[in-house]
Amino acid sequence: MTDMLPVLDTESTLQRLGGDASLLQILYAAYLEDTPQKLLALAAAVSTGNFKEAGHVAHTLKGSSATVGAAAMSDKAREMELACQQGNLREAESARHALEQLFSAVRKAILEPPA
Q1: 51: which of 12, 84, 102, 114 fits an S-S bond (Cβ 3.0–4.6 Å)?
Q2: Domains in the chain, number
Q3: Cβ distance 54 to 84 under 8 Å?
Q4: Which residue intervals define the domain HPt in the entry (predicted)?
Q5: Which structural domain range is residue 45 located in?
Q6: How confident is the model at residue 113 (pLDDT cuts 50, 70, 90)?
Q7: Which domain CATH number covers 33?
Q8: For 96-108, what is each residue's pLDDT tens digit?
Q9: List of long-range contacts for 23-28, beta carbons under 8 Å, 24+ apart
Q10: How far apart are CA 87 and CA 46, in angstroms?
């Protein structure tokens, strides 16, 4: 499912914000600042088998990604959250790795928007 979702849907996000491009830039800046820490927290929680913490961080990441229009990232965070609820280390680790790759794509889309 994640493969069919956009990396970043700026148009829809801007529409939800009533066309407020300044607010969109504030959201993007906060997202770019906060997400790397969340990804580090996910890695630490998964590596120690702390599925409760990893699930909590994944849930937070799911919401923040949806807010900025990073639908694929939000969907993968949902998968991570479910894997943590099930105590599935292999799936959680796979989702964590995918989230890191997706964040690189989202960061690039935010910092280097198409002309």
Answers
A1: 84
A2: 1
A3: yes
A4: 20-115
A5: 2-111
A6: confident
A7: 1.20.120.160
A8: 999 999 999 999 9
A9: 27/67, 27/68, 28/68, 28/110
A10: 10
